[in-house]
Amino acid sequence: MGSAMTQIQRPVAVLDYGGGNVHSCHKAFVRAGMDARIISTPDELEGMAAIVVPGQGHFRQVMEAFDHSGFRAPLLSAAAAGTPIFGICVGMQMLLDASEEAPGVAGLGLLPGTVRRFEPAPGAEKVPHMGWNSIDKVGDSPLLRNLFCPAYTYFVHSYYVPLDVEADAGAITEYGVPFWSVLSQGNIHATQFHPEKSGEVGLAILRRFKEQVLG
Amino acid sequence: MLTKRIIPCLDVQNGRVVKNVRFFENHRDAGDPLLLAQEYERQQADELVFYDITATHEGRKLMLDVAAQVAEAVLMPLTVGGGVGSVADFRELLLAGADKISVNSSAVKNPQLIREASDHFGAQCVVLSIDAKRRAAGHAQGDGWNVYVGGGRVDTGLDLLAWAEQGQRLGAGELCLNIMDADGTRAGFDLEATRLVSRSVDLPVIASGGAGKLDDFYDVLTEGAADAALAASVFHFGELTVNTVKADLKRRGLNVRPAWADQ
Description:
The complex is a heterodimer.
Chain A: E1 12-15, H1 23-31, E2 36-39, E3 50-53, H2 59-69, H3 72-80, E4 85-88, H4 90-93, E5 96-99, E6 111-117, E7 129-138, E8 151-157, E9 159-160, E10 169-175, E11 177-185, E12 188-191, H5 199-214
Parallel strand pairs in A: 1-2, 1-3, 3-4, 4-12, 5-6
Antiparallel strand pairs in A: 6-9, 7-8, 7-10, 10-11, 11-12
Chain B: E1 5-13, E2 16-18, H1 33-42, E3 48-52, H2 57-73, E4 78-81, H3 87-96, E5 100-103, H4 105-109, H5 112-121, E6 126-134, E7 145-149, E8 154-159, H6 160-170, E9 174-179, H7 191-200, E10 205-208, H8 214-222, E11 228-231, H9 233-236, H10 242-251
Parallel strand pairs in B: 1-3, 1-11, 3-4, 4-5, 5-6, 6-9, 9-10, 10-11
Antiparallel strand pairs in B: 1-2, 6-7, 7-8
Helix pairs in contact in B: 1-2, 2-3
């Protein structure tokens, strides 16, 4: 980008609501060329180009921490106004209505559906699903546009977003069952894997978020 | 398809990597954890383990700096172990940037540490590391392996399989298995013990201790039924690189994470 043509890029919010360490996530968005900011109070969300929802741990604890931080209402109104949202790992699962991990706990409800658990069974795959697995594109998610596949990304999770959740496009990964590993639906985007732990592939996906979604 | 992982392990003392990292020894910063982490990232390592062998409080603080530096610079999972004895230790290291924490002796001493850490931070970040040795012929407990602590000096009397299963019940997310009869011998991983543990738990199992040649990795990931293989000196001496190990595994039909470049 030539300096004369440089547009002022609005910052990207990486939410710190007490749901775990957000520093490596923040750093990865910076490395991908975004002005990422760690945001820990709702009033700092004003003027942000996009909102990143990281998450790790138990669905109930993560949702409770999220609600306690006061982010629910401003996140939902930003999403309704068209602001791009990017959920990562449990942050992806939080975008649904609910999770089998914590029945009765309300997710953010941006994507209708329920997060399911991998069923450990004799001879079945081990739980958690941990390590590098391949993603296969379905449709044309801006996060994956012209991304060479098969690409491998780093997963660590025991729950997943099932394919009955509606999406415009994304990627599917198989682990005993097929599930959404990348999902794009309107201005809502998410990855079940950790792009910030997925080497060059992760960085390439974050760069596409910047170029194809934020523009 | 989920790939088999290859994991280099580095010992850290007072914030510096120690013990024979020979492929780097002509480098003026041979003990710099950051440079070594970046080198292993270039070699397509799937994860990194830093094991803190520092005995002092000051040295422990330096380990937090190491975790923070490495986590910011490399885009791969980072496990830290050594001297972790409390939920507070977990919290410090996770906030510094570690993705997983491994516990060993402290978990034997206080098994509830596994439960507490798993409840607080999720099973995905609790690695139960187990040192074990085969019981001598004629041992009262019969054939099998016992769990050791204190760097292999103290026999806890715990049976390896029983402890692995208990670790799973308590909420560990992964097991790292070091069979000490094989450790440092370069004679290969203990396939029998690794297979038995891997079949008796539903958790991913990392085999550790004994890697000396390409066949050892293939054998433990197939016959040994391990999900990942961890090695130290064979990589640090530069005898094998992570790349050469993965190329060999791929040639023999195992699924490994390939090199990748953006278009």
